[in-house]
Amino acid sequence: MRILTPSKKILLPLAAFAISYNIHAQDQNITLSQDPKFEQLLSNKRKINTSISTNDTYKIQIFSGKSEDAKKTLSNFKREFNTIDGTIIFNTPNYKVVVGNFKTRIEAERNLEEIKKHYKNVFLVKPSK
């Protein structure tokens, strides 16, 4: 074992202290800068999400089949009934075209009768709870 001289006994801890004195793990002050439009977009998204209610509305299914036929059916439907929303849902193995977001069954049945005049095999889809 090597024995340190008295000058090295003092010098070594003093050097270690001097080196470690200026070491900082992390700065605790964090500055966050974001685009002001971000808050506006976030509030718009919150408004949209609260207005969308998918589970408590009646819908009408007007088609079930292949993808291309579903796209054609939805396109034709939107031309004929431009006030009613429609979408395509994939449910293995078929694509389904469902339309409307009717809050009451009566409203859905009224629209169902009108849609039946233009499409066959149309039926009401109850809300899932």
TrEMBL record:
Cytoplasm is among the record's keywords: no
One Pfam family named in its UniProt record: SPOR
Domain SPOR: 52-129
Keyword Signal: yes
InterPro entries named among the record's database cross-references: SPOR-like_dom, SPOR-like_sf
Keywords (A to Z) from UniProt: Signal
Signal peptide: 1-25
Protein name: SPOR domain-containing protein
Species of origin: Flavobacterium calami
